[in-house]
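Many introductory courses stop at the sequence. We go one step further.
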Amino acid sequence: MNMQTEIEAKLSHGLAPMHLHVVNESSQHNVPAGSESHFKVVVVSALFEGKMPIARHRMINALLAEELNGKIHALALHTYTEGEWQKTSGSAPMSPPCLGGSKA
């Protein structure tokens, strides 16, 4: 199972999302071809109701603790309740371009 599928499975099971979109953004960074180290997650879940963004991120970090302990280098999180998602017209922000880290 690749990393993207693993992330999708864990978040689907743990958050019962109404919407989940996981994007492998590794190719946009200074990593070898085929890397699975940089991901963007857009998730809409009723479990986020009444929770601040930091609490939502902690929920995801707990579900992905094993992956975040070395396999994943960067994880961009966009977390919404159903109402918040509707206000965005069903779109999340684009990730900024990679500046090359320490090589910039």
